[in-house]
Design goal:
Layout lengths: L4 E7 L6 H9 L6 E8 L5 H6 L6 E6 L5 H10 L5 E4 L5 E2 L3 H11 L3 E11 L5 E4 L5 H7 L12 E3 H6 L12 H9 L4 E13 L5 H6 L2 H17 L7 H10 L2 H7 L4 H15 L5 H19 L2 H19 L1
Parallel strand pairs: 1-2, 1-4, 2-3, 6-9
Antiparallel strand pairs: 4-8, 5-9, 6-7, 6-8
Helix pairs in contact: 7-9, 9-10, 12-13, 13-14
Length: about 325
């Protein structure tokens, strides 16, 4: 009998937290799952830890050499048998009811193809901080303009969506492969989040994403591909300068460190986007996303006149988005 959920967990030299991560899956209140662990050529004790388990729900795929996260994720998904694919990282831990609550949510909301959850951020010094993500699928479609909208290791995906539209993680989006997949999938299905924190997400200084963030030019090229894909679906073609501007203003830290644009220039660009989105029946969500980003940028610039101006605009658009 096929399992309801296939949990896909890539591992590369993850011995430090691996046992805690595996145990958090095996101890789920929901038991109808398979746990596919892809050992990606680890040279520490990861494979020894994995082999120490005798639970029949565990399926081990071994890469003879390090193939990378994207290859390992796709290999795990291609070997899965479940109706749903749940992601898991080797250094995170799940709430005991994570799979139960996500399975119930997906069964009750057939229109949702991908669902993440709120999560607790665990910093390297042991600190905790809860992060709640947007649940409205229409608002998430708009928010994808700037950021991924999901915590990658918290997601559950309807496998039929991946199969029907031939979707998978792509090398061209390396180090932002989740963001690229969400953008491509959003053309065909809806994305939501459960507001309950069902994952403890560990932030490590040596994580792949944190290391990639330090290489501005490489990160820029990857995100430009994602932005092109996103805006092309709305019939909007951005030039190279606009793509670079979009990359810088999409993240507060990048805006602080790399920005050479004035608030006025950013506002002109945002007005161009708003004029294009005005044709969309869900325009109010895109207008809200743009006004929220504009307010954040003006706060960073500490231009108090602009802050007041964009705060009023943001509050108005926030109210309109709720109607």
């Amino acid at each position: 009998m096929k399992p309801a959920i296939s949990v896909v967990m890539p591992v590369y030299n993850g011995e430090l937290y691996l046992r805690d991560s595996i145990d958090s899956i095996l101890n789920q209140s929901f038991s109808d799952f398979e746990l596919i662990i892809i050992n990606d050529g680890s040279n520490d004790n990861s494979i020894k830890i994995i082999r120490s388990y005798e639970d029949p729900r565990i399926i081990v795929l071994n890469n003879e050499e390090n193939k990378g996260l994207i290859y390992s994720l796709n290999r795990g998904i291609h070997n899965s048998k479940g109706k749903y694919i749940a992601r898991m990282d080797a250094d995170d831990c799940c709430h005991k009811r994570r799979l139960a609550e996500q399975w119930q949510f997906m069964e009750e909301h057939k229109e949702i193809g991908i669902c993440g959850t709120a999560y607790n951020i665990i910093s390297s010094d042991g600190g905790h901080k809860k992060k709640i993500l947007e649940s409205n699928p229409l608002q998430n479609r708009a928010n994808l303009m700037f950021f991924p909208v999901l915590a990658h290791p918290s997601v559950i995906i309807r496998k039929s969506v991946l199969d029907e539209f031939n979707l998978e993680y792509k090398e061209e989006y390396k180090h932002a492969e989740d963001y690229g997949l969400w953008v491509e999938a959003s053309k065909y299905t809806q994305i939501s989040n459960i507001k309950k924190a069902l994952l403890n997400y560990r932030v490590l200084d040596n994580s792949i994403t944190r290391q990639a963030d330090r290489n501005f030019e490489k990160r820029l090229e990857i995100h430009k591909r994602i932005y092109r894909k996103y805006f092309e679906d709305f019939g909007l073609i951005l030039n190279e300068e606009e793509l670079k501007l979009h990359f810088i203003i999409s993240d507060n830290i990048r805006f602080k460190n790399y920005n050479n644009y004035t608030i006025k220039e950013v506002n002109v660009y945002f007005n161009k986007l708003k004029n294009k989105f005005r044709q969309n029946p869900y325009y109010k969500f895109y207008r809200y996303t743009l006004s929220k980003r504009m307010l954040s940028l003006s706060i960073i610039e500490r231009n108090y006149f602009q802050i007041i101006k964009f705060a009023i605009r943001f509050l108005y658009n926030m109210l309109m988005s709720k109607i």
